[in-house]
Design goal:
heterodimer; A: about 210 residues; alpha/beta; Rossmann fold; 8 helices; 7 strands; globular; B: about 180 residues; alpha+beta; Beta Polymerase, domain 2
Amino acid sequence: MMRDELKIRVVKGPDGVEFEVDPLRDYFCEAPPASHPPAYAKIVEDLFNWARSHSLWILGFGTGCGAIEMRPLMTPRFDAYRYGIAWRPTPRQANLLVISGYLSVKTLKRAIRAYEQMQNPKYVVGLGSCTINGGMYWDSYNTIKRLDDYLPVDLYITGCMPRPEALLQGFEDLKKLIRAGKAEGANQYAEKFEWYKANQKQVIHDWDMPDYNW
Amino acid sequence: MMRALHDRLKALFPLGELTEQRPDLAFLTVPREHLRSILLHLRDLEGFSHLVLLTAVDWLEEGDFQLTYLLSNRGKAVDLGLRVMIPRDGASMDSIHDIWPTAATYQRELREMFGIQFPDSPGVNDDFILEGWIDMPPYRRDFDTKAFSAATFKEREGRMTTDPEQHMKQQLYPDGA
């Protein structure tokens, strides 16, 4: 079932020595995610959270029509950068995953991989009706209907589609949640990891990737 | 102009019904066994050099699939669609990827979404849009999208649906005027 590039194979190095590569063991983590405990004193954790709230880096990964709203948001028209929100091209460099609209099962697979590759602390924002209850795709054969079964959502922004102003307001709300220590999605994902994996595998029938994508 | 083309084709091949939708767009039903020679004739002698699309319609009640090969004559800016009816049971059609390589992609999609087989078409059995699909091809009309969705994807409680007409009436004329 695993993809070919994940199967054990023998590789010949540039020095002519052949060696075995087991991608699941050599390239991916073998341990489930761990919950990140708060700092030793509340005042320190509050300081951390204050700092985290000012360091939001969005993964530039659009899943549905909502990705269109991110273009005016990251350009002069709405300019989210003035609120300290920036976009990054890779999961490793980002800590906020915006699921911008409907998620097909195929895209869900990529979203899970992207989310798991992001580093803690990380947050998920669900954008629009489709991520909340399926929206206009409620009877579609290929889109999930509630995002929080598959990824830990810290904040939903309603609308179909939400305007860029709503996103800016949503980001401000997310900052408040982070400062209050309530944006604990990543820890929740680690604690209920088995539950999330079971939900994910229930809809993704060709599970051909590692369980721990980091 | 489409009439003239139809007359020229009629002299050469047995043809079905001609539907003239616009002066520059017509549809023509052709028998399955002559499709290939008609396509080659249109491409090489009539200037229909471009395959715009290849798509299917599910005539569930008649037990047929209709394949539509839409061709374009770029020079004269006219489009001609060729309709081919094939039986729905064990649906299979000859591949035309050697006439237009792009047809392979359309055939791959039709195999996945309608379950129409195109033997010899390159990569036709690879996943196209769906991954890990386990049910019947979803574009077939007897596939119940709503039931599949309800059985597969969990719903959130509290979602409600209103009839748009009644809702707008209530919004605009709350007194029932």
